[in-house]
Amino acid sequence: MNQDAIKKMLLDIQGSELEFTVTLTGKRSKKVNGLYKPQTHEILLHSKNFQSDNQLVYTAVHEYAHHLQTERREAESGGTLPPGNARAHTCDFWARFHGLLRAAEAKGYYRIGVDESPELAALTETIRTKYLAQSGALLRELGQMLSKAHALCDAANIRFEDYVDRVLRMPRPAAEIIVKAAAYGVNPEIGYENMKLVASIRSPDKRAEAESQLLEGQTPDTVRAGLKKPPAEADPKTRLEQEKTRIEKTIGLLSRRLKLVEENLAALTGA
Fold first, then answer.
1. Residue 10 and residue 22 in contact, taking contact as beta carbons nearer than 8 Å
2. Torsion-angle region of residue 41: left (phi > 0), alpha (psi -120 to 50) or beta?
């Protein structure tokens, strides 16, 4: 694939109103396969790192997800990228990226290809059934045992928290969520970690929805992102006023710091 074809593919997966460029560097990198520059909206792809177009598409979509995140940040700040370095690989980023990958698969641009390797497909089924599902079943049993231990601690006038902390030597938040997972009857097929994710959701309806999404193949980050309340939309005037306030606070902090540095320099010079 050349640069123009990659850009056309990305825009077909999801449109963007913010202009960007795609560059195949013709280089190999030991550090990264690709890079996105938010200030200049450039997607750089180290083409010699890839053995196939499929690998190239995966990285191109990853960097394009960064571009779409930047587009959103600029829109929220009134048309310019806010100062400071926002954390790049957030839960929202991974949810967006995985959504773009699903769209790329649906349009035939990308495939994960597990079924093309019979050995990998068989191993995947073993991991899912023998390890992920069984780890979930063990978590549910552990939750039931912890509930029983709690009742026995109460009967013996023992603080359950002390029992968890110093006898079992378990992190208390972990013990609490494991007990909830068992009490809620979370499906063990989704695996140990995903059971804890579902058990952390208060609403029964949202728990059921999250469990269903995981069973259907959604990623944990996609489920987490879906649980977040969307931020309230601010009008352009409000966004600019908020940005003005942030900038004024930053200038104030830097001014005070500059004054302190100048006083220290003066003191040193005077000495």
1. yes
2. left
pLDDT of residue 191: 92
| pLDDT (0 to 100) of residue 114 | 93
Q: Which residue has the tokens 């940005």?
A: 243
User: What distance in Å separates the CA atoms of residue 171 and residue 89, rounded to the nearest whole number?
Assistant: 27
Q: What is the dihedral of CA 246, 251, 253, 256, to 10 degrees?
A: -160
Q: In what order do the strands lie in the sheet with 42-45?
A: 21-24, 42-45, 34-37
**What is the distance, to the nearest Å, from the Cα of residue 155 to the centroid of all Cα atoms in its chain?**
43
The gap between the terminal CA atoms of the chain, to the nearest Å, is 66
DSSP 52: S
Q: Which residues of 54-81 are buried (b: 16+ CB within 10 A; e: fewer)?
A: eebbbbbbbbbbbbbbbbeebeebbeee
Full set of structural domains in the chain with CATH: 3-112 (3.30.2010.10), 117-227 (no CATH)
User: Which residue numbers in the chain have pLDDT < 50?
Assistant: none
What was the pLDDT predicted at 8? 97
